[in-house]
Amino acid sequence: MPARDRLLAVLVAVLWGLNFLAIHATLGQFPPVFAGALRFAVIAVPTILFVPWPRVKVRHLLGYGLGFGTGQFAFLFIAMDTGMPTGLASLVLQASAPFTVLLGAVFLRERVTPHQLGGIALAVAGMVAIAWQQSGHAALLPMVLTLLAALSWAFGNLSTRKAEPDNPLHFTLWMSVVPPLPMFALSLVMEGPAAQWRSLTTLGTPTGLTALGGLTYVVLIGTVVGSGLWTTLMRRNPAGVVSPFSLLVPVVGLTASFLFLGERPTWLEVGAAVVVIAGVLLGSLRFAPKRELVAV
């Protein structure tokens, strides 16, 4: 993986780590599934009108939209709305990395090298240590929902690899056309039109304005910029090489939650975050095979 792509992957991790603060602000105003529907609807309308079709098979676009878009954010938003701490959510969601490596090996026949497995294991060990430290702050249901969000993200990653879009940004934007309808329908059933209307008619309050700022960040930075870069990286590199960088997201998320939400990490969590970074770097590197010495 080129150094430029590694830097881009780190940038995406930072953008997505801060994305959890924006989601936290958004959920202070909107019902969770309705917030997810709005997030993608804001992008879907101008995409249909102005963005060219990305020239990929429809089934791959649907797979990406249902996995990365619908499944991931429906599960994640409901989990955070039902009590999942912001920092812990950013951590548990990164289970998508080992999920992607496993699914990539099974469905795409991607080769996983021993040092990649070692890096993933090291990063996951750090993630598990943080999860164990914070497990007392989250109920079982939000944890399970966040893991389902991670699994959905992993399936979306595989669809991206199979699609091989010629224009990753167009592909990312058109992915946003898929989630709004199923998420609006799910919101109507779970949350009801009264809750949807109330959230829209109170946007002039301080909470509403903060939520609009959070939604703007989620749409423009988290989705358009972050997902566009991630799709580019997944197109240029094997899924098992790119996906470990998502394990950097909880480091950013936990730090941001500490600075802005008062969620204080322990020394164990700080040490585990360092282990996560080391594991990501190890898992992303490709070592050239040793040359054999030939007698002359």
From TrEMBL:
Belongs to the EamA transporter family. Residues 7-130, 143-282 form the EamA domain. It comes from Amycolatopsis plumensis. It is found in: Membrane. The keyword Amino-acid biosynthesis does not apply. It is a multi-pass membrane protein. This is EamA family transporter. InterPro entries: AA-Vitamin_Transporters, EamA_dom, EmrE-like.
